[in-house]
Write a structure and sequence with these properties.
8 strands; alpha/beta; 37% helix
Length: 322
């Protein structure tokens, strides 16, 4: 038995993938890549048919599995983001490591150069991988929670006078897309593209994702006025940015969520340069994932992507833009 075959027989330890070199050193063939996908997808060894859900499918000599319930033959990539790919799984895995390990993201141009593929192929790879970063609707924030909103786009400063759009100052959405974020201090963060920042839009989101009796910290934007209503289930403190106040010295501040906005802007403007509104939520999800896992080892983020990649994904999941 050769060295590669011996590697494929050993259950993988993701903690050793703490550098790109270690990833390249281990995944030397597509056979090893497929074995890793199988171990991640069916950790107990019970191969489940992606067509009918039948259990204990048998692996044939050609490397494909046969379902004894529906007689379908399939390989380990069926039903995952790798299904029908013409690209080597080694390149997919390297792309997964690169996007999960770069603190501010990585552009499709850079991925294309690193993997020796076209920019168009690299762009498609990155968007498939970003589909793995979707935020869970089950996430609940509690305790001390900061809320804030930001607007992306609509830079008018450097435009010629006859190219500028009137009425885009402040919270106008003519040329800007509003984003709303909530972060639990010492905890997780959620952020999403919203239609506007009116109270009728923000309050239902807060009620959905923030537990009752939490204490919320916001600026003086009137979209948060509902937090002070008599029937409000939340505590509420306001920092007055218009008065150049950023902290009152007693913990009333929104510096945590504003720190995330700074990170997000550096990712967008420094790495991607332009983000279309149609795909904006995916970039937000990517930034939120990095923020929530900023203390995790690179190997842990890589393992998380593996676990997500082997879940059942349809073409609609990948193509869909929020």
């Amino acid at each position: 038995m050769d060295a590669n075959a011996r590697k494929a027989d050993v259950r993988i330890d993701f903690s050793k993938f703490n550098s790109l070199f270690r990833v390249m050193e281990y995944f030397t063939t597509d056979a090893i890549c497929k074995q890793t996908l199988a171990e991640t997808r069916w950790p107990d060894g019970d191969v489940i048919c992606p067509y009918c859900g039948g259990h204990h499918c048998k692996k044939g000599k050609d490397g494909r599995y046969l379902c004894r319930e529906c007689n379908h033959k399939f390989n380990v990539t069926v039903g995952t983001i790798f299904e029908n790919t013409k690209l080597s799984l080694r390149k997919w895995f390297l792309a997964m490591y690169l996007i999960s390990s770069h603190k501010k993201g990585i552009s499709s141009h850079q991925i294309g150069r690193d993997l020796d593929v076209t920019q168009k192929t690299a762009w498609f790879i990155l968007h498939k991988l970003r589909s793995l970063y979707g935020q869970s609707d089950e996430t609940a924030l509690e305790g001390e929670v900061e809320c804030d909103e930001m607007y992306l786009g609509g830079r008018e400063t450097n435009k010629h006078e006859n190219k500028k759009t009137e009425g885009t100052q402040g919270r106008s959405t003519k040329t800007k897309t509003p984003i709303f974020g909530m972060v639990q201090r010492e905890g997780d963060l959620r952020a999403m593209k919203v239609a506007d920042t009116k109270g009728s839009t923000l309050m239902p989101i807060i009620k959905q994702f923030v537990r009752e009796n939490a204490h919320l910290f916001t600026d003086e934007h009137n979209g948060y006025n509902g937090l002070d209503a008599e029937d409000s289930k939340y505590g509420h403190s306001v920092i007055r940015h218009k008065e150049k106040q950023f902290s009152d010295g007693n913990g009333v501040t929104t510096n945590t969520i504003e720190g995330f906005w700074g990170h997000f802007k550096r990712m967008v403007f420094g790495i991607y340069h332009f983000v279309s509104a149609a795909y904006l939520q995916r970039y937000i999800d990517e930034a939120v994932f990095r923020w929530n896992t900023r203390e995790a080892a690179e190997s842990s983020r890589f393992q998380h992507m593996f676990r997500e990649s082997v879940k059942i994904y349809t073409y609609k999941n990948v193509k869909k833009a929020a």
